[in-house]
Amino acid sequence: MKQAFKAVQISEHVYWVGAIDFSLREFHGYATQRGTTYNAYLVVGEKVTLIDTVKAPYKGEMLARISSVTEPDNIDVIISNHSEMDHSGCLAEVIDLVQPESVLASAKGVEALREHFGLDCVEALADGESLGVGDLTLSFYETRMLHWPDSMFTYLHADGILFSQDGFGMHLASFERFADELDPPILEYEAAKYYANILLPYSNLVSKTLERVSQSGLDIRMVAPDHGPIWRKDIPKVLDWYAKWADQKPTCKALVVYDTMWHSTELMAKAIGEGVSAGGARALLLPLAGSHRSDVATQLLDAGALVVGSPTMNNNIFPTLSDVLTYIKGLRPKNLIGAAFGSYGWGGEANKQLLAVLEEMKVQLVGEAIKAKYVPDEAALGQCYELGLQIAAKLKEVVGNS
Ligand code: FEO
């Protein structure tokens, strides 16, 4: 198989030498229906630099691609933009094999690589530092907490390439290396999904990074992330997506996220959705029997309302609601209104627990939580419909003022 893995030249000095993981379907809690890539880049001038490596099982694929350009032991410098194991899992073995002159990372990257792999050969780069590597110049920009403390961007001046590690990436496996060779709606969905599930908690830092990039004066002709395709066209469009997602301005869209045991909570969800829609907003029902937590997070990225429904089960909320709310709370979405509802048999504790989570998330509550015993009657469904109308009215007010 080694003969089949070739590098792909992406610019005068740079080759993509990463790996394609078509079968990945789960990435620490994130459903990756389209697989992913682990991108590594070989910069070839008078000296040879490897930027990032790949997940451990893909070391052979990466080395085979490097070998199609030059022998791996010709690598002079290795740069780690991000120490998470999908980009560093084989780093220690590659260092042993290559014996480079230097291995470089941000100061936090030096710590993280030592703590992960016991590596003590990694030298720290300063934020904003530029380094001559043979006839080429690289500059380094810390992007701390985007999304790990060690994260940084590397810029290659000669070719105008920003190597952005997880930033501007997506989980999408393909043989096409460039975004402009792929279907635009799929790209936008997967980029949004990546942002919502990985970067959303750090949106304030994303805004600051975008400002720094726009004030840097760097001539960015290509953005080369560590996952998914490379951007050589439409770079302003991608920067605009990030600016929009970082702002989290609400739209007139209400997510109704629920699970159900005997379809009672589902009937309530539908009545709320009908009310939202009749009120002139968009309702999207996400039954958790068929909606993964990472898809809920993606849909929440441009929503203005989060409405959650759960039956009471053993004095608690239904387990799927616990899962998705724990996950979403950690992503720290902003600017949401919301409400709670659900059916019960005797205790009916679920609503109180749902409201407590929404309050922890600083969701502005609309109306009263609605609970229905066993099966919602006409009166209860009417209340749900009215709640939907109230949510739509509030959404229109909030969106009008934002
Ligand atoms: Fe792709 Fe944060 O690792």
Would you kindly provide a written description of the structure presented here, covering whatever features stand out?
The mean pLDDT is 97. It is built from twelve helices and 24 strands. It has two domains: 2-246, Ribonuclease Z/Hydroxyacylglutathione hydrolase-like (Metallo-beta-lactamase, Chain A, 4-Layer Sandwich); 253-396, 3-Layer(aba) Sandwich (Rossmann fold), CATH 3.40.50.360. β20 and β21 form a beta hairpin. The relative contact order is 0.10. 36% of the residues lie in helices and 23% in strands. The protein has helices at 59-67, 85-88, 91-98, 107-117, 184-199, 203-216, 235-247, 264-278, 293-300, 319-331, 350-360, 378-401; strands at residues 8-9, 14-16, 19-21, 26-27, 30-31, 36-38, 41-44, 48-51, 77-80, 102-106, 122-125, 130-133, 136-142, 152-156, 161-163, 222-224, 253-258, 282-287, 305-309, 312-313, 316-317, 337-344, 364-365, 370-373. The strands form six sheets. A seven-stranded mixed β-sheet has the order 1-2-7-8-9-10-11, covered by helices on one side. α6 packs antiparallel against α7, α8 packs across α12 (378-401) and α9 (293-300) crosses α10. With 402 residues, it is an alpha/beta fold. The structure holds MU-OXO-diiron. MU-OXO-diiron binds next to α2.
